[in-house]
């Protein structure tokens, strides 16, 4: 997999550009989001997510231009820590990361879980959000594969928030209702 993807936000001005490639260590995603937060402030966020071949998150870094940043590593033992070695015990049990400003991170559990139509899975993710400041917490989420033969669609729920997410053959979100529309490529996949 070596592809570029772009999304356009629906509720605010901005764009996201993502480059995803596979290398000898797994899958590397490098993204840049330019957006306006709900409080009206503009933000430029760059992120990198590295997953192993089983789509388990191994490293994540998020940098708010002119603001805070966060970097986390996850070992084979499932323990999360900061690069300097400080363990983040509150993140125990999390396999995936969810970065609030991008639809890409929905791809991680979709690819990792490989659900069949009608199957569901409850997961706990490392959740990186941006309001009021850059914060790392956890999020309980449910993914359900809803599709028929023609289209692949996942139901996503986190707390009171629910959405149906159409995805391409690579498990990448095409449209995130009310939030994002994919602008490049429009709907086709390049291949898994």
Features:
192 residues; globular; single chain; Putative glycolipid-binding domain-containing protein; Glycolipid-bd_prot_put; nine-stranded antiparallel beta sheet; mainly beta; five-stranded mixed beta sheet
Description:
Helix content is 4%, strand content 53%. The C terminus is likely disordered. The chain contains one helix and 14 strands; from the N terminus they run E-E-E-E-E-E-E-E-H-E-E-E-E-E-E. It has a nine-stranded antiparallel sheet, with no helix packed on it. The protein has a five-stranded mixed sheet with strand order 8-9-10-11-12, covered by helices on one side. With 192 residues, the protein is mainly β. A hairpin with a 4-residue loop joins strand 5 and strand 6. The protein has one domain.
How are the SSEs ordered, and which strands pair?
Elements: E1 2-9, E2 14-23, E3 26-36, E4 42-51, E5 57-64, E6 69-74, E7 80-81, E8 96-99, H1 107-113, E9 120-129, E10 135-145, E11 152-158, E12 161-167, E13 175-176, E14 180-184
Parallel strand pairs: 8-9
Antiparallel strand pairs: 1-2, 1-14, 2-3, 3-4, 4-5, 5-6, 6-7, 9-10, 10-11, 11-12, 13-14
